[in-house]
Write a structure and sequence with these properties.
This protein is mainly beta. It has one helix at about 1-15; strands spanning about 25-30, 40-45, 50-60, 65-80, 85-95, 100-115, 120-130, 140-150. Strands 1-2-3-4-5-6-7-8 form an 8-stranded antiparallel β-barrel.
Length: about 150
């Protein structure tokens, strides 16, 4: 039991002491993806420190039946994987507006590649949990591909 606790402690400490690659102060672009149709969001990221940032996404989601305006805010932690690759995880929430409105909580986990030019490409998974509203009355998942210009 003692060895197990020691291993768990070592893993926890090593995860929290990983050094992150310097993330850009600002990044703006587009995030494509949706859980039930086609969607695109204007995506803005703002660094809050050396390894954390705020992401704000505004966009239109929907399918042939309806269109939805979606606003999402996420707080993210960023860790370096290798060279220009990072992975990130975060939490947040947002609002949906269309025929009716909804509030949701969200998480995110993803991987990104930071090119030598000011371009960032990311692929992420965003589980979303509906709090109120007809659109999100439970769990939804969202895969997205992001392309952002860094400055």
């Amino acid at each position: 039991m003692r060895k197990l606790l020691l291993c768990i402690s070592f893993l926890t400490i090593s995860i929290f002491t990983m050094n992150a690659q310097e993330i850009s102060k600002n990044a703006i672009g587009i995030r494509f993806g949706d859980n039930n149709g086609i969607g695109a969001e204007v995506s803005y990221q703002r660094a809050l420190g050396s390894n954390n940032r705020l992401e704000i996404d505004l966009g239109i989601r929907g399918n042939s039946d309806n269109s939805i305006f979606k606003a999402t805010g996420l707080y993210q932690w960023v860790w370096e994987l290798e060279n220009n690759f990072n992975w990130y995880a975060g939490v947040g929430g947002g609002l949906l507006s269309g025929n009716s409105s909804a509030i949701f909580g969200a998480g995110v986990v993803g991987i990104e590649y930071n090119f030598d030019i000011p371009l960032l490409i990311s692929l992420d998974f965003r589980p979303e949990f509906g709090i109120t509203g007809a659109y999100y009355d439970g769990f939804n998942s969202d895969f997205g591909l992001g392309v952002r210009y860094q400055f």
